[in-house]
Amino acid sequence: MRESSTPVIADPDPILIAKNVTKHYGERIGCEDVSFSLWPGEVLGIVGESGSGKSTLLRCLAGIDRPTSGEILFRHEGEPISLFNIPEPTRRKLMRTEWGIVHQNPRDGLRMDVSAGGNVGERLMDRGDRHYGKIRRSAMEWLTRVEINEDRIDDRPRQFSGGMQQRLQIARVLVPEPRLVFMDEPTGGLDVSVQARLLDLLRVLVRDLGIAAVIVTHDLAVARLLTDRLMVMKGGYVVEEGLTDQVLDDPHHAYTQLLTSAVLAA
Amino acid sequence: MTMLQHDPDYNFGYLDEQTKRMIRRALLKAVAIPGYQVPFGSREMPLARGWGTGGIQITAALIGPEDRLKVIDQGADDTTNAVSIRRFFARVSGVATTEETSEASIIQTRHRIPEKPLDEGQILVYQVPQPEPLRKLEPSEVETRKMHAWAEYGAMHVRLYEDIARFGHVATTYSYPVMVNDRYVMSPTPIPKFDNPKMDDMPALQLFGAGREKRIYAIPPYTKVKSLDFEDHPFTIQSWTEPCALCAATDSYLDEVITDDHGGRMFVCSDSSYCEDRRAKGHIGKELAVAEALDYVDRGEGASHDA
User: Fold this and answer.
1) Residue B263 falls in the annotated catalytic set
2) Which of A132-136, A162-166, B32-36, B251-255 has the lowest mean pLDDT?
3) What is the DSSP string of B211-226?
4) In chain A, how many domains are there?
5) DSSP code per residue over B155-213
6) A230 pairs with which residues across the strands?
7) Is residue A61 part of a domain?
């Protein structure tokens, strides 16, 4: 069950490989023995109830927390490198350039007292861009792409609504054109209509840019809309895995059946 | 040079010898890694932290009987902080003091670099309130140390970006961040950015002490110091439309001085020693007579001036 199914994708080499990733908090299990591969352009969903280990797994995959055991391999310049066997500065550099993290709460991913343009531009300045005009133009472009009006470029995130803050965070993550994006409940705390627009936007962006993504969510509708493949977690274990439609329409594990049947029909 | 006796109740230079050695070790490390902030065991001094205790401790660790000390505060030799620190060292070390920049072997400063270029063999000691240039962007010390260690300085330009976005130009006028020796981003302390270019390739040794924050850093002589900027918004310094009202200097940093309560004001050199020197050489500004009438400068100080 923990073996990956092999999707038909042009690039034969996975961008991210998790091998028996385990994270314990003292005696308690965060996540246990999770293995999977993620290919470029693919979107993987991780669903499960609160406390099932989704966020723990995501933090390990994104290089924020070191797993207790297991290995995470990221394909960088053609070679798989083990995320926690490389020096911290290299890992931080990869975190800034090769992948991005969209936090559930925009406050965790944005500088709240820096203007929208500064927030988006920071990633470019990190990379070494030193031309104000060009940085501002790219920032402007990205704000438009995430449907934030250009005249809000000098406003601070505090002055934005929740949905706008989240879109700004997405622009900030995507501007350096990462190859891999991690999203932790990207639509959490937003009302349904804003959620729908954000999901639409994410889908278009992910498809357009051909980036690989790992999305953690407890919302099966989000999973169905955005993801190609799904992993269902419970108590730290992956209990079911497969193509999204397959898992949602024909759930095998008792817990997945419970989860899908708990969705209210609109 | 009259050798004064130092107050026998204190060790020479106030600090005990072990503390001086500790500070010298920190200084050596700081000189070896230009721009890197070296932690040191800052001591209690007989004045409040934030009043220049970092600079005083460096001076105390360096000073010897042969030294000549100059102390300036905002460029002036005769302001409270400068006078108090000068008196303090005269008492605890008995060394000669001077107001003449070129005569001094150690110059302790707050907020300015003297206008007269410094020479090899001179030491400039800065009093530093906040040594961490990244602090406004990153509150965590653990994180800022990592950022320095791995030269992750992208965030620094966010500060400049914000200025240009809001004001159309970089509005930071003091504590303007610099890159030292192409490696460390450093806070030049609250000197006006007018003084930043003087730090570059300076023949004198520059030492920085932050007493409250317990950090020492340094720029060895002839080191590259570059003010951060954007390609399309290059670094610029302040300029004034009029010369100094006392000495007619056009190349110095000017302070605004209010002369009455009807809006009267004049712009004068902030470096008092430089200004006096120029007046002694016969340079006379437009409002020198006004300043003398107000007792802002001593009468008849300008040698060739007829009041």
Assistant:
1) no
2) A162-166
3) TTTTEEEEE-TT--EE
4) 1
5) HHHHHHHHHHHHHSS----BS--EEETTTEEE---S-BGGGHHHHTT-SSEEEEEETTT
6) A45, A242
7) no
Please give the ipTM for the structure prediction. Answer: 0.82
A28 occurs within a structural domain: no
Could you report the per-residue pLDDT of B8-57, keeping only the tens digit for each? 999 999 999 999 999 999 999 999 999 999 999 999 999 888 889 999 99
Instruction: Considering the candidates B52, B75, B247, B302, report the single residue annotated as catalytic.
Output: B247
The closest alpha carbon to A44, from A240, A242, A201, A210, belongs to A242
Residue B65: which residues within 8 A CB-CB, separation 6 or more? B3, B12, B93, B94, B95
Helix/strand/coil (H/E/C) assignment for every residue in A100-157: EEECCCHHHHCCCCCCHHHHHHHHHHHCCCCCHHHHHHHHHHHHHHCCCCHHHCCCCH
Please choose, from the candidates B189, B27, B199, the residue with its C-alpha nearest in 3D space to the C-alpha of residue B110: B189
Q: Are B88 and B119 in contact (CB under 8 A)?
A: no
Would you say B236 and B194 are in contact if contact means Cβ atoms under 8 Å apart?
no
**A258 lies in some domain:** no
Please determine, for residue B163, whether its predicted confidence score (pLDDT) is greater than 60.
yes
What is the rounded distance in angstroms from the CA atom of residue B33 to the CA atom of residue A75?
36
Q: Do B150 and A117 touch (CB under 8 A)?
A: no
Using the structure block, give the residue that is written with the tokens 């712009």: B267
- Determine the distance from the C-alpha atom of residue B260 to the mean position of all C-alpha atoms in its chain, rounded to a whole number: 29
Give residue A264's pLDDT band: very low, low, confident or very high (50, 70, 90): low
Domain that residue A119 falls in = 110-177
Picking from A114, A119, A136, A175 by the largest number of B CB atoms within 10 A of its own CB, the best residue to mutate is A114
Parallel, antiparallel or unpaired: strands B184-186 and B178-180? antiparallel
Per-residue pLDDT of A34-74, as tens digits, reads 999 999 889 999 998 888 999 899 999 999 899 999 999 99
For the beta sheet containing B68-73, the strands, ordered from the edge strand earlier in sequence to the opposite edge, are B38-39, B215-219, B205-210, B123-127, B106-110, B68-73, B96-97
Distance, CA of B115 to CA of B75 (rounded, Å): 9
Distance from CA of B206 to the nearest CA of A (A): 28
Query: At a CB cut-off of 8 Å and minimum separation 6, what does B232 contact?
Result: A131, A132, A133
Residue A137 lies in a domain: yes
Number of neighbouring beta carbons within 10 Å of residue A110: 24
